[in-house]
Amino acid sequence: MRGAATEMPSLSRSELEDFLYLEAALLDQWDLDGWLALFAEGARYLVPPAGADDSAVPATTLFYVADDYHRLTERVKRLKKRTAHAEFPRSRCRRMISNVRILGGNDARFEACANYVTWRSKMGRTDTFFGHHRYLLTCSEGAPRILEKTTFIDQDDIREQGKVSIIL
Asked: Would you tell me how many other CB atoms lie within 10 Å of the CB of residue 4?
């Protein structure tokens, strides 16, 4: 997912923004099945450690999350159960997406990025996570689908938050 290509997909930036806003809304509503449906079969979801730069990869860095499609599906199932103690009752979250950019590629594979802020409120405490998402996407049947999403937490640590039990 590195390096910009010179081609561009047929998808416009505003269409990509709508897609990313939909993704954020699905997560805010805790519609995890709807969120998972945005991913293509075989996709990956990655969250490197707080403060990691864009060159971090799971092969050389211990990631908070390094899910292939099967593990991502299992994560969604687990988070929806009452036995997911860190998220039962679930946190209240609100996500803001900005600075959406298409970096290049074509309809088969293109790169995009966006900044985010996620607020998480639970048990009288509100935590803030901020950073940027890098996406590898495809256009399938006229709609974008996520091939890979990497969520970078741009804070230098998350000690104050204590944990990441939500999907950023």
From this structure: 12
Q: Which helix (H) or strand (E) holds 120?
A: strand 109-122
Look at the chain and count its residues: 168
pLDDT at position 161 is 56
Q: Which is it for strands 109-122 and 125-140: parallel, antiparallel or unpaired?
A: antiparallel
The DSSP bridge pattern shows strands 92-106 and 125-140 to be unpaired
Q: How far apart are CA 46 and CA 52, in angstroms?
A: 12
pLDDT in tens, 22-49: 999 999 999 999 999 999 999 999 999 9
Strand 39-47 with 143-153, pairing: parallel
Find tokens 């047929």 and name the residue: 10
The domains located in the chain, with CATH, are 13-153 (3.10.450.50)
Which stretches in the chain have pLDDT values below 70?
Answer: 1-6, 84-85, 159-166
Strand partners, 153: 131
The predicted pLDDT at position 6 comes to 62
What single letter denotes the amino acid at residue 102?
I
Question: 112, 16 in Cβ contact below 8 A?
Answer: yes
**Residue 12: how many CB atoms within 10 A of its CB?**
11
* Joined tokens for residue 164: 């990441």
Give the CB-side neighbour count of residue 43, counting CA atoms within 13 A.
23
